[in-house]
Amino acid sequence: MPHVPDGENASAAAARRTSPVEAWFRELQLRLVAACEALEDADGSRGGRFVRDAWQKPAGAGVLSGGGLTCVIEGGRVFERGGVAFSKVSGAALPAAATAARPHLAGSPFSAMGVSLVLHPENPYCPTAHLNVRALAVTPADGEALWWFGGGCDLTPYYPFEDDIRQFHGTLKSALAPFGDDVYPRLKRDCDAYFTLPHRKEPRGVGGVFFDDLDSGGFERCFALTRAVGDAFIPAYLPLLERRQATPYSERERDFQAYRRGRYVEFNLIWDRGTLFGLHGDGRTESILMSMPPVVHWRYDWQPEPGSPEAKIYELLPPRDWA
After folding, report:
1. Cα angle: 103, vertex 109, 111; to 5 degrees
2. 130 and 165 in contact (C-beta within 8 Å)?
3. Which of 176, 314, 219, 223 is nearest to 23 (CA)?
4. Which of 10, 37, 207, 283 has a beta carbon 3.0–4.6 Å from 278's, enabling a disulfide?
């Protein structure tokens, strides 16, 4: 726990910190939306725009109360579908999906806020990307307020370019370097372990960084690390789209993209703790499921032809050092 000044209880100290944390989350959402809309306009035409959907769940209307702003783009010049959502909610009982590492906190009052992003470009040569940064505070029965941060970002290409993957990981590594040489490798390993489909025995993509239950080193360090990950997303990901979004493609590539998107859906609906936290905790369904791609295919026991471009991604999915 961080130092609490004399005369200030832990709950008041947690409330005191809420303002700068919330302000950064809200500002990050605005920057992410602005950067994506700028990319939509990069060819000189007015591309797609995000629809802003502000929502509120009043106290007593369900398990959660609070609100947020969900920004969604569909049918854009670059993004077939994408969402950037901010939420700030509280509840009387922490859902089980959030207590894997702290089972003794199950059922405790809590508050949570954060930003979630998923971008699905239309061009199959452009990778899907995910970002989430969040903060959670809990007041257990003994009255001592606890807090922690979580988040990460990862890349899911369909037709991978190794230079793009190295740039994505290299940007994240540089952003985390001030926190110690061991931080990026550890968060990368955690990402590789988390974003995998156990029922397929297959990684979802080529990884990135992931952290959860982060509270060691003090509040300011944990918040700074969370900001570093969120701030690194635009320089890590958008240059890849700038390079690839005009690459010609055919129905073959679109069909394979839709097939691989099926893996994304399987992970989000079966294994992702954030999705389960929202759905099991009576979260706002439209905002939670904004991450779903608009076009998805499944086939029975399909395998790519050996040596084909579609087989290339399977060679690069096993975890490796990219930076």
Report:
1. 105
2. no
3. 223
4. 283
pLDDT digit string (tens) for 124-163? Answer: 999 999 999 999 988 877 777 888 999 999 999 999 899 9
Packing angle, helices 219-244 and 10-40, rounded to 10: 10
Is residue 280 annotated as a catalytic residue, yes or no? no
Residue carrying structure tokens 């190794």: 162
CA distances from 18 to 25, 65, 108, 147, 212 (A): 11, 17, 19, 11, 19
Q: Is the pTM of this model over 0.85?
A: yes
Any alpha helices (H) in 52-182, and if so which ranges?
162-176
Assigned token pair, 251: 């129905």
Any idea which residue has 């797609």 for tokens?
48
Q: Which residue has the tokens 């909610």?
A: 89
> Using one digit for the tens of pLDDT, what is the confidence trace for 276-292?
777 766 667 887 888 88
Among residues 155, 164, 135, 167, which one has the least CA distance to residue 195? 155
> For 213, left (φ over 0), alpha (ψ -120 to 50), or beta?
left
DSSP letter string, 202-237:
EESSS-EEEEEEE-TT-HHHHHHHHHHHHHHHHHHH
Determine the pLDDT at residue 28. Answer: 97
Rounded to whole angstroms, the Cα distance separating 87 from 8 reads 27
Secondary structure element (H or E) that encloses residue 134, with its range: strand 128-138
CB atoms within 10 A of CB 191: 26
| Active-site hit among 104, 130, 169, 199 | 130
